Design the sequence.
C-alpha cells in the first residue's frame, strides 16, 4: 500500500521563521527521510511552495475554468494525485482537464501545485535510485 | 536638455511595453527585463544629448538592454562557477547568446501579444492581472497604479511581486496561446481592460467620479490589442464601447462636481470625434457577424450617442439589444437594464413590474443601482413615498461620494 502524506502548515508562520529555524525543520525532514529510506518505505518526498503558487481547474460544461489558488471546497477531500513532468502550466492544465475528478468525471476539481526542486546538496544520496521502493 | 527629457519620456510612454515584452522573452524573467530596460533608459539619458537621438529609439533601447542582459548572464555564470553548487538555485535567466543582440536590434520584434496573454493568464488572480498589465504593458509605475486604485503602495508592490513569482514558479508560459484557445483566453484580457476602464469611469470609492487616467489607459491598451489582433470583433466592440462611454466624460459632471444623468446631460459637451470613431469601429465589428457582449453593449451606447435629444432616444431598439444581450450572457443586472429600457420606452408600469420581478430573486438587494432605478421609475409615476424609500435604500449602499450626493438631491426632491 502506498500512502501520500500531506503536510499541513501555517504559511504565515513559516514566512516569519528565521534561517536557523528553517534549517532545523530541514534537518528534521532529512532525519525522517533517511530513516524511511533505511527501512525501505520511502517513495518520494518533496516540499511544495506556498499555496499562492497553486492553480485550480474545474470543468464546467466540458471547458476547464482556471482559477488562482487552492480553492477546493472543504466538502471535497483529496482522493489521489498524479506527478507529471510538463513543459509549463498550460500543459499541466490540459492534463488536469483529462483527469476524472469524481466517478462521473464531472464533480470536484484538480489543484495543480508546482513541485519545488530540492537542492542537490540536501538530497539523501541513495534516494535517487529508491523510487521503485519495496513495492516496485 | 528638457527637450531630450521629453523625447525620452515619450519614447518610454510609447515603446516601453514593446521593449519590455521582448526583453522578457529574451531573459525569461520579468525582473531582469525591467532592470535591464531601466538601465538602458538611464544610458539614453546620458547618451542622446551628446550623440543625438537614434533613428529608431525603441530598437536602440532594446539592443542596449539586451547587451546588459548578456553581461548579467555572463556574471551569473562566473559567480556560479566560483561558488560551486548553489544551495538553492534560482534559474532566473537563460544563458544568452551575444550574437543575437545585433539580429534583435535590426528586427525590433513585437512580443506584446505574449505579454498580454501572460499578464492576463487565468491562473493569476484578476487583481494581479490588472496590476501586472498596467505595470508592464502600460508602463505605469507602481505608485501611479496604487494611486489610481486608491491602494497603499506596499499592497500593490506585493501584488506585483507575488504575480511575478507565480509566473516563474508555476511556469506560466510566455506564449501566444494556440488558435483554438484564443477566444477563451481573450475573455480575460478584455475583462482586465474593461475593469480598468470601469474603475476609471465610475470609481467605486473616493471623491471624484471619474479617474481619467485609467479611462485613457484602458483605451490605449485596447488600441494595442486591436492592433495586435485586428480580426477579433469583440476587441473592436470593446474599444467602441469605451470610446462611446468616454465621449460623455465632460458632460457627466457639472462645474460643482455633481453627477449629471444621461437624460440631463448637455449633449453639445459630448466628444463627437470619439462618437464617430466608436460608431465606425462598431460597424466594422458587426460586419464580421459574430456579435458578442461588448459589441451589443457598444450598440446600446451608440443608440444613446446618436439621439439628438433624450426624447428622441430609440428605447425599443435599446430594449431589443438588452434582450439579445440576455441571450448571450444572462445576468440580473442586464435584466434590470432591460426593464429600465421598457419603462423608458413608454410603459412605466410594465417596466416597474419587470424590475420587481428581477428584484424578487434577491440577488440585486445589495446593488445600489437596483434601488436607484426603482426609485427613478416610481418618481416618474408620481409615487413619491415609495420612491423616497427606494432612494433611501440606494443611499445606504452607495460608496462613491458623487453618486451619494446625487441620490441625496433626488431624495430631497421626492420627499417634498
Sequence:
Amino acid at each position: 500500500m502506498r500512502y501520500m502524506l500531506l503536510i499541513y502548515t501555517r504559511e504565515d508562520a513559516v514566512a516569519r521563521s528565521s534561517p536557523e529555524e528553517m534549517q532545523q525543520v530541514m534537518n528534521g525532514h532529512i532525519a525522517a527521510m533517511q530513516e524511511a529510506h533505511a527501512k525501505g518505505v520511502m517513495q518520494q518526498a518533496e516540499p511544495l511552495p506556498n499555496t499562492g503558487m497553486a492553480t485550480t481547474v474545474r470543468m464546467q460544461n466540458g471547458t476547464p475554468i482556471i482559477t488562482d489558488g487552492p480553492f477546493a471546497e472543504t466538502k471535497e477531500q483529496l482522493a489521489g494525485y498524479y506527478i507529471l513532468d510538463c513543459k509549463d502550466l498550460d500543459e499541466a492544465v490540459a492534463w488536469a482537464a483529462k483527469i476524472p475528478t469524481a466517478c462521473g468525471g464531472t464533480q470536484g476539481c484538480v489543484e495543480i501545485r508546482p513541485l519545488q526542486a530540492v537542492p542537490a546538496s540536501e538530497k539523501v544520496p541513495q534516494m535517487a535510485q529508491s523510487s521503485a521502493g519495496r513495492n516496485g | 536638455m528638457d527637450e531630450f527629457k521629453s523625447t525620452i519620456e515619450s519614447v518610454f510612454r510609447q515603446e516601453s511595453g514593446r521593449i519590455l515584452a521582448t526583453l522578457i522573452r529574451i531573459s525569461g524573467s520579468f525582473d531582469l527585463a525591467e532592470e535591464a530596460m531601466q538601465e538602458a533608459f538611464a544610458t539614453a539619458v546620458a547618451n542622446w544629448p551628446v550623440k543625438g537621438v537614434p533613428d529608431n529609439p525603441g530598437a536602440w533601447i532594446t539592443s542596449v538592454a539586451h547587451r546588459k542582459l548578456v553581461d548579467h548572464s555572463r556574471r551569473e555564470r562566473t559567480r556560479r562557477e566560483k561558488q560551486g553548487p548553489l544551495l538553492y538555485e534560482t534559474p532566473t535567466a537563460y544563458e544568452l547568446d551575444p550574437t543575437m543582440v545585433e539580429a534583435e536590434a535590426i528586427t525590433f520584434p513585437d512580443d506584446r501579444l505574449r505579454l498580454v496573454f501572460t499578464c492576463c493568464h487565468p491562473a493569476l488572480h484578476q487583481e494581479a492581472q490588472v496590476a501586472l498589465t498596467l505595470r508592464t504593458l502600460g508602463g505605469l509605475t507602481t505608485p501611479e497604479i496604487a494611486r489610481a486604485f486608491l491602494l497603499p503602495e506596499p499592497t500593490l508592490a506585493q501584488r506585483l511581486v507575488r504575480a511575478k513569482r507565480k509566473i516563474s514558479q508555476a511556469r506560466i508560459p510566455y506564449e501566444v496561446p494556440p488558435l483554438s484557445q484564443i477566444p477563451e483566453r481573450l475573455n480575460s484580457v478584455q475583462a482586465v481592460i474593461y475593469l480598468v476602464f470601469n474603475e476609471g469611469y465610475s470609481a467605486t470609492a473616493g471623491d471624484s467620479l471619474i479617474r481619467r487616467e485609467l479611462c485613457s489607459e484602458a483605451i490605449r491598451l485596447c488600441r494595442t490589442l486591436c492592433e495586435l489582433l485586428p480580426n477579433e470583433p469583440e476587441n473592436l466592440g470593446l474599444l467602441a464601447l469605451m470610446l462611446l462611454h468616454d465621449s460623455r466624460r465632460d458632460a457627466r459632471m457639472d462645474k460643482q462636481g455633481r453627477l449629471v444623468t444621461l437624460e440631463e446631460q448637455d449633449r453639445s459637451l459630448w466628444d463627437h470625434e470619439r462618437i464617430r470613431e466608436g460608431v465606425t469601429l462598431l460597424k466594422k465589428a458587426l460586419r464580421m457577424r459574430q456579435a458578442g457582449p461588448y459589441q451589443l453593449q457598444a450598440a446600446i451606447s451608440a443608440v444613446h450617442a446618436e439621439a439628438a435629444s433624450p426624447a428622441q432616444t430609440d428605447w425599443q431598439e435599446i430594449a431589443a439589444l438588452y434582450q439579445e444581450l440576455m441571450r448571450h450572457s444572462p445576468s440580473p443586472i442586464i435584466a434590470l437594464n432591460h426593464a429600465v429600457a421598457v419603462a423608458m420606452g413608454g410603459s412605466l408600469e410594465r417596466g416597474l413590474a419587470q424590475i420587481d420581478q428581477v428584484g424578487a430573486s434577491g440577488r440585486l438587494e445589495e446593488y445600489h443601482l437596483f434601488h436607484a432605478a426603482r426609485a427613478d421609475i416610481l418618481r416618474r409615476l408620481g409615487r413619491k413615498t415609495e420612491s423616497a424609500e427606494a432612494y433611501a435604500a440606494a443611499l445606504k449602499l452607495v460608496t462613491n461620494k458623487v453618486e451619494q450626493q446625487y441620490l441625496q438631491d433626488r431624495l430631497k426632491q421626492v420627499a417634498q
